[in-house]
Amino acid sequence: MRPSVLAYEQGYAIHVNQPGDALFYHLDYDERSHDLNMEFQHFHDFYEICILLDRTAAHIIEGSLYEIQPYDIVLLRPSLLHKTQYPKGIPPKRLMITFAMPRNALGIESDYNELFSIFDEPIPIFRFTEEQRKEVLAPINEIFSIYKQPSVLQSVVIHHRFVEFLCAIHRYSAENGYVREETGSLMSRRVYAIASYIHSHYQQDLSLDEVSRRFYVSAHHLSRQFNKVTGFTFTEYVQMTRIRNVQQMLLNSSEKITDIAAQCGFTSFSQFNRIFNKQNGMSPSAYRRRRHSQSERDVILVGERPEPLGSLE
Where is region (Disordered) located (predicted)? Predict the structure, then answer.
């Protein structure tokens, strides 16, 4: 592999303000071990960008699996369910950026909306040529250097460099070279297609029999393979997807909890309460009160254990 075009120092972190502020940046340069893979997909109320520096990994976004290579840029908008699967062996190096940015600047709101449209792409992963990559990542390297030498207006300069970084991605977005590759066995690909279907239809009545017929596989075989690939039974996966979406609505709306449960596919409120308490260790109303009182709302399950990486064969 050619020398890195992205400055890197393990354990280096850049902070401007704090999560929960209207504007904040956190750039985290570190390694990520397979042992720290999350069990299930999570979401944030801020933006996240992941850039892998070496080896390969996989991103699961709304149940769909995407293989990523060094210098692929993964853009994740707020409230998007996702997780990264890092491989076994030597932990890959990566830069993880989390941020929030006001977009209501008087007179240029439409420009900001256009700029942030890169986060709304059907596949929000960007792969550029070597020359494009150097230009895109140059502002991030400047931020890396600027933060090492504190000065007047440092935060303002970092903010402007970061906007330049987003503008560069937008400028080359039409030339995005990322192509989703089919990996794993036919059955594992079908399982991830079914997982994606669950994320798109969790509000509806979903049964193993109905979904197996839709995807032309026996219910018994699907049940075994779904657990093998995802680490969850079909029913567990449906319930966790629904609960994640309930969590989003509890944090981002003032709707009644009974209405939220129904909108997310629960037909029995008592069953919903039981599942929510089991997964979160508290009631939905307590969760809403607790999470609203915290400045950082990086939502994961209480007591979440390491991810039993599903077999991709």
Answer: 283-313
